[in-house]
Amino acid sequence: MEFIYYFGDVFSPLSFALLLGGTIGGLILGATPGLSPTMAVALLIPFTFQLEAVQGLILLGAAYTSTVAGGAVSAILLKIPGAPANIATTLDGHTMAKKGQGARALQLSFLASAVGGVFGVLLLIFLTPVLAQWALAFGPSHLFWLAILGVTVIGSLDSDSVVKGLLSGCIGLWLATIGFDDIMGAQRFIFHPSLGGGINIIAALIGLFAIPQVLTMFAKGRKTQGAEVIEVQKHSVGKAAGELVRNPRALTIGTITGSIIGLIPGVGGQIAGLVAYDQTKKFSPDQDKFGTGHPEGVIAAESANNAMVGPSLVPLLTLSIPGSPTAAVLLGGLLIHGIFPGTDLFDNHPDVAWTFINSMLIGQILMCIFGLYVAGLAARVAQVPQSVMAAVVLGLSVFGAYSVQSSMGDVYVMACLGVMMFFLERYGFSAAPLVLGLILGPIAEANFIQGSMIANASVGMGPYFLGGPLNIFLMVVVAASVAYSVWMELRTRKVQNAVEVQS
Fold first, then answer.
1. CA atoms of 24 and 421, how far apart (whole Å)
2. Distance CA 356, CA 54 (A)
3. Is the CA virtual torsion 23, 24, 25, 27 positive or negative?
4. Tens-digit pLDDT profile for residues 389-443
5. Which of 215, 258, 414, 450 could bond 401 through an S-S bridge, CB–CB 3.0 to 4.6 Å?
6. Contacts of 158 (CB under 8 A, 6+ apart)
7. How far apart are CA 80 and CA 342, in angstroms?
8. Of 155, 36, 176, 76, which is closest to residue 376 (Cα–Cα)?
9. What's the predicted TM-score (pTM) here?
10. What is d(CA 179, CA 185) in angstroms, rounded to the nearest whole number?
């Protein structure tokens, strides 16, 4: 129950102001099509440089939580998911809005998100310390295989195909080698002076996530979205809360499904929402009502989306394996403040870890409170012309990349990576595994070199890296993750096809 002692830190003036600002801003950003939670968090990282580590994490965590929930606004009112996690919400939410029940759908979505989110953060609170202590058993060889596992897991699940996901992860690992070798000091792939210090992770995050979206927005020119905003009618919040209580099946299935999927590194909120929607429909006696404006569909999808947020941070904080693309960006936010996830986080920085986790718990409640008040404004933000939105995001991207080291070289790197990712996305490649390869590459390399020194002085390379129960277990998990991702890909496509047939 150590986390209770750090609740007061969340309510310090600056920390609470950041929590409020991140929550309200995240709701607006989440409701804007094209601005995913991952992109929103990546754009905010440069603004945390002058903050203390815990304050920066509070801002990023609040934005992460609220953008996932805020995406339901445009999904319900415009039938445009604010993020991939809100795809399943459009199926019944928009139909309810067209029937004049937009306020009811929004209230159900935010209430369900709050319930699922609180449950997910409670899992984070009680599971993370246990797993962090277990992580003490890991040496250099085990951490090397864990880094490889992180790339293979998220690389094979957050892409159109397993092969493309793994190739994206390999590209990220190669990019991580650019610069000077930390051990021998040798130059590696330094094609331009801007690359002498390697690729700055913040410039890479902004370039890979924001620039492709900017180019896509500019490609649309001045075309309007062609979506009509549906008026949000008044509806009693008390009635919505009562309806939520009367639908425990959808709430329970969504919350449990989202929590379990969140614990699996790399699966992502979009899969949680679709799987929860599918399972709720299968267990419901009113299967024919799904897709026609059934509130259970909204409740299941949104409770699952936010329930996965907390558990997705469990593998990040204990084993340095992000459980979602946005968690991978949060890992970058930790590293720039010199904080490394694992047992050291809770032993050496308990105030940072517990204050951050507590802020996410309070943030779920604030998200629900402000959600309905911001809903109307957020819906209007979604109508901003794409060309204007692209210009704003591009300005923030250039500012963020330059502010890291006051270097135009980082801006050039951001632009080059962004253009490269723009074309790679056209062929089904994903930015998430590439970024994860870039983040975990130095971790894998450092532990491989350290392990090699230990191995050469003791049992040799083969027995050190390939022997021992834990090494063998991790290698089996790496192989199993690829096989599992193939099965999961086939299953997800089957669920999506079934959903498309209904819609």
1. 30
2. 6
3. positive
4. 778 778 878 877 787 677 888 889 889 999 999 999 888 887 767 877 887 788 7
5. 414
6. 165, 266, 268, 325, 430, 432, 433
7. 38
8. 76
9. 0.66
10. 9
